[in-house]
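Researcher: Here's a chain I'd like modeled. Treat it as a single chain, no partners, no ligands.
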Amino acid sequence: MNTAATALNPLRRAVALALVGLLLGGCAVGPDYQRPEQTVPAQFKHAEGWTLASPADLEHRGRWWELYGDATLNDLQLRLETSNQTLAQSVAQYRQAQALARGARASFFPSVTAATSKTRSGQGGGSSTVRLSDGSTVTSSGGGGISKSYDASLGVNWEIDLWGKLRRQLETDTASMQASAADLAAAQLSLQSELAQNYLQLRVLDAQKRLLEATIAGYQRALTLTENQYRAGIVTRADVAQATTQLKSTQAQAIDLKFQRAQLENAIAVLVGVPPAQFSLAEVDSVPALPAIPTLLPSQLLERRPDVAAAERDVMAANAQIGVAKSAYFPSLSLSAAGGYRSGSLHDWITTPNRFWSIGPEFAMTLFDGGLIRSQVAQAEASYDQTVAVYRQTVLDGFREAEDYMVQLDVLEEESGVQQEALDAAREALRLITNQYRAGTVDYNSVVTNQATALNNERTVLTLMGTRLTTSVQLIAALGGGWEQGQLEKVDSDSEELP
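Model: Modeled as a single isolated chain. Structure tokens:
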């Protein structure tokens, strides 16, 4: 019989089994993924009068903050991307998810190991007594010996994915990686939104400061006028006291703005990764204008919010885990091979007589586990149902947020119009009362009352402006900012194809 042909028979059988396994590996147990059904309205409830988004509507699709036309804000956002530590944590988490997906892909390929070793062993000496047939005894002693063994081997092990367990696990880890990428985008959008809101509020405070400084200058002139009239005997000391009270209370309001501005400045410093002591923003003479924000169809919202995408990828991962759990019902097949050289001496170690090898398949199947696999499948199915509920709730929350900010901007616009009319009336009333006071027809208490009313209306207009600006940022974030779900398709674009 041909010895070489006989030795090849086990190898041929192993290769045949591997081919069968690869053919069967195209099937995978467990349900294939389907996006959960979700009721989506035809349009937003409060979108009347808004313009639907089109590719030309948002020129800065990624850098949405550029819609505000503020160079300082643009620079701060770029610094946030590179220096924010919360964002760095999310980036590290995403890198972990990438590594996990690569590890799942590696399980499709054989693992090859190599080993070499030298072993020394010995046996202790002793004596033994033997009784002969004539009744005499003979005592013999044996010395201990030391032996050496040299081994060099190469091993290969390959698990065949008969029932799609490895494929489902790869689906799980890939979906988890994409969910992590969407989580990263959501965290980045949240931080960008927070930075933009803080910055816009700081600029509104600067406008408040300029208003109070101008008002203080006017009150100072009024106090000087009142003091002159008092010295001339035209007014009483009470008018001087009222003018002084009005001036000092307004100065106190201006001082309070310093604390509020410092808080916002410190918050911005932390967002861009700088100690507050090393960061400052110079005042400017203008507030960024409110941009025009085109809205989307509700169905587009599902493609533009990263938190919705992350929730759906979690559903995808949980769905694949059902297949992983069910694959435990079926036997596993692995192929292993090993070969090398083993010798008791070094000089003839790597020679043909010292060669050894082994090859063969291994089937393994759980015959009884007391219901463990069944419970694991039930856990996977329950986890899937949980992620579906989370996904649907995330979508509902997204719709609610968009509706809230749309109606809030609409109401604030209407309120701002009415408030501006009130401010115009307060300014006119103050002008008339001031003229009457100078003519001596009214007392100073009327002037003080109208001054307070005018200042309150001025500050309310600025407060509404700040609220509208921050709400616009919140609406942009609620609509997904400049993010698109299609970006997730590029997350693992450089990965190898499945075997």
